[in-house]
C-alpha cells in the first residue's frame, strides 16, 4: 500500500518548501535547527577495520578531526542492522550525522522518497563532486521523486567502485592439477574435477547475498541491455520462465545437483562463507571486491587470485555504497566536509593501495600489483558499460524474498518452476508496492 509513503513525502515536501526560504548555511534545513559550531559528529559505517574501506575511513576520521577540531563519534554497525532498521532510525532522534548506506531504488531511493535523506545538490556544487562522480558511478547517488535511481537530485555520494568477481585459491588448484579457468566451459570443467576429488568447489552463503549475486551473474551471461533495463528500470516486463532469468534459476539447481554448491549452505551467511574461503576450505568464492582488501590482509596460508566471472559480459556491480546525511541531522555542513575528505587524494590513494577501487586516486600512486590489476579490470568494465547493478535493487522487499526463494531451491523444497513463480510474484508485488509501476 502506497498511501503511507506518499503522505509522508507530501508532508515533508511541504515542510521543506517553507523552510528552504530561510536557508542560511549550505544545505541546512529549517525544520532542524543547525549547529553552526559542532564539537562532535556521529558517523556510522559497516566496513571491517582490516578491509580497504575500513582502513580508508579510519584515515578520514583522523584527517577530519585534525582539520576541523570536531571529534568523530564512530559507531560500527552491521550491514544487516542498517539495512533492516534504517527508516526507523533515520526517523528518530538516534539518527547519525553521516552514514554509509546501500545504494539503489529499494534502499537509498526509498528513503529519499520518504524525505529521510538530505538533498545534497548544494554540497555537490560547492565541492564539485559531480566532476568526480560522473556516468554510472554517479548514477547511484541521484534519485527522482519516486526514488528511482539515475536522475533527479543528489542524495548520496560514493567514494569507490565495486563489482562481483571470482576468487581462486591458487594452491588448491595447483595441488589438484587443475587450471584456473579462463572461459565458462573451463569453469564447469574445473568444478567437475574438484567434485570428482570430493571437494565442493564453491564457498557459498545462501542466507544472505552471495548466492543471489551468483544467480544474477548467471542471468547476465544470457542477458542483453533490454533485460537489464526491464529488470532494474521497469522499462518492460521481466521474463522469469525463459531466457536469462530462467537460465540462472535452472543453473543454480543444476549446480546443487552436481555438487558444485553444497545443500548445507542454505543457513550460511556472507561473513561465514567468506571466512570459509579465507580458511582454505574451498577453491573458489564468487563475491564482491569489498572482500579484496580483507583477503590481502587476512589470508596467510595460501596464494590467491581474482578475475571477472569467466565468460561474463555484464557483471553485478556499481559504485560502492554511498554516504548519506540524514535529514534529521543538525550538523549537515560538518557531515558534508567529512564526505569531502573521503574523496581527497590522500584517502583515495590509501584506498587503492589497501585493496579498494578508488574513484579519485592518482593512478601512479597505486603501487600494489594486485590492486593495480583490480583497478584496471574495473576501469575496463566501466569503459565497456558492463555494470548491471544488483539483483535485489528493484524493490525494498526483494532482498529477503530472493534469498528465501533461492534457499528453497537449494534445499530442494521448491522446484525450478515454483521458484520462478515465487520470484515473479515477489518482484511484481514489491515494484508495485514501492510505487515504481
From TrEMBL:
Signal peptide positions (record): 1-24
Pfam families, A to Z: SBP_bac_1
Database matches in Gene3D superfamilies: Periplasmic binding protein-like II
InterPro entries: Bact_solute-bd_prot1, SBP
Keyword Ligase in record: no
Record keywords: Signal
Protein name: ABC transporter substrate-binding protein
Organism whose genome encodes this protein: Alloscardovia venturai
